[in-house]
Amino acid sequence: MQSESEEVSFEQIAIAVGIILLALVPLAGRHMTHLVASALLLSLAATSFNLLFGYTGLLSFGHALFWGVGGYTLAVMMSRFGLGYVESFVMAVIMSAVFGAVIGFLCVRHTRIYFAILTLAFGQMFYGVAVKWDFLGGSDGIYGLPRPFNTLELYYYVILAITLASLFILYKITRSSLGLSFMAVRDNAFRAKFIGLDVSRVRLTSFIISSIFSGVAGALYVLLETAISPETMLWTHSAEFVFVTLLGGPRVFLGPLVGGFIYSFLADVAMSATEYWLLVIGVVLVAIVLFFPHGVLGYFLKWREKR
Amino acid sequence: MVTRREFLGILGGGIAGLVIGGALGYNLAPKPTPEKAKAGKLPGVPSEPLKIGGMWFISGKFGTYGDMAKKALNMAVEEINSSGGILGRKVEVTLKDEADRENVLKNIRKMVEEEGAEFLIGIDSSGDVLKLTPVVENELHVVTIITHAATPKLTACNNLHYMFRISMYEEPIDIAAAKLVAEKFKDVKKIASIGPDYAYGYDSWAIFSNALKKLLPDVTWMEPMYSKLGTEDFSTYIDKMLSYGPDLVFSSLWGGDAATFVKQANSKGLFDSIKYYLNPMLGATDTLKAIGDGNVPAKAEVWGSGRYWFLYPPHDVYPLNKNFVNKFKSKYGEYPPYVSATSYTAIYALKAAIEKAYVAKGAWPSQDDVVAALEGLAIAGPMGPVAIRNEDHQGVYSVFWGKLKRGAPNYPHPILDDLQIFDFGEVFPAPKQTYVKCG
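Predict the joint structure of the above. Result:
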């Protein structure tokens, strides 16, 4: 017979097995390494998006903006100011936080559709800035950035390590009193106010943390891709975060991660099979919204609970 | 309490996503199936088909490019495969859509690293080609032939090794435009201009105006104007031009924008008050189709150029072009635009280079061997003989400018007539030189 503390360890085993598999990915060739690396970063961005969406109840439709801020900051620091990887990365994190604070301050006063529209508008606005501003490379973007260690495989481990660390931090936040305040605001803002929470401030905190980790994902992605262009801030990219989160399940912490992997592999297979792969993705989205409103992981956990 | 069954459930849940994902990726991806060596094949030549990866805009509003490239590729591949392939290897071209904007580099890497493409061709957008260059040169190391993207930066500002461009780029056309003005339209005093609002529009004006300043120092011009891609109403731009009162309008608008502008300028009377209208992108069959015979101005002379014009080199003296045009027309029911000619030529350039390198080596050539064979290669394409320069990997051939004329009754769209030919020696900058700022 096992005790309850051992019960937790089974989930830990599952995660450990996952991590071991992830560590073995470079053995599966360059394409697979690339694919899993981008899936990890998409998952990280979606998880940070979900801190705002699933945990705080705010649907941001412009979150690719922060991916772009992180990415552009890193690219500008490296190519325009000649900074090293670490300094550029730190700057990217700082800029993501600054942008998150300013844009969050302007957005969190509103909720629901108004919040979604505002974030969408900010995203499109900065897309316009990136297209127009020569310093950011204009419509061509910034390209030809060298990867650390000059190899995809070693850089993959950098991405894996930072992504896992970020996910761990985000997980800890959701389990902390701060995370509880996010959920309190999500479930009933009036009650949260009555028990003494500063609702706007809670939302802003969630917004900033969310921006930072989207920025981290964007910054890491630039060196995977070796280039960044304004399209990364387009609303379609923001919609990808929303999609991935719905796919995996917004009410489970690892939902967006599962969604990110399913989406990336599905897109990869669909892209090889047909030029009209977006149609496949569209059909999947409709099916999920209709039949699995809690996402794949959410559905799986529910099913397991029932048994 | 946890039973064995539940434990398995949890463990399975944790890894299922990864395993399913991995298995999907592996099993659904096409794998090359090794064929048995056939008797009678050339020594040192692999027997599996030669895979070439291509990328153009296939969907969306620029989808015509991919469509036209695809048609020409099918023609080239059919021709080559029906006469034994390249050194006995069958040629297969797989295409990816450049309109998938966020995945351009991802798809390029996928073609090479997963789908086994040995060479790459295509690319419509200049922004994409600049991004792609370091990836091809430093990471993928495969010979890549660009067939459309026209920024001077590609060949002038990079030290290319694996990348080549077979298509005409914007600079020689714009320099030829300046020459045309200086030689034929000497009475021009005031110029107005409009171009698309991104790098190509700015570069095109910079090249034309700088080249013209040297030839006709007294010409003056108004501040260049730029419009968003896909602009539907040009009336404010046209009004500004009318109030400035130019003799000549230079426009680098392309595709639908170029056609819309001509139609609206025509109805607003711009062509009654100016003498000349020059557009380096007008000589594209889809643009001419969109303009239509009815919108060819009666008064002003409208001149256009392009990377290839299906009536040049003249069919009677250059049968290769005649055969290409006739075959294309009978197969697809229309005259080939430039993307078709350059894509077609790119495949034949690869074939010629591989064969040349094979003769020197006696075995299937490496990427570096193909690079060496492409350098200095001369190849006869529908656009005439093309020479690939050693120093910058740019294909050079002569530039045409022609005057817009109604096509009826012989052609379904307006055509370019009174062709002025500029030999490449006159209008190509020396290798690595450009009016455009690098970096």
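Chain A touches chain B through 58 residues (CB under 8 Å).
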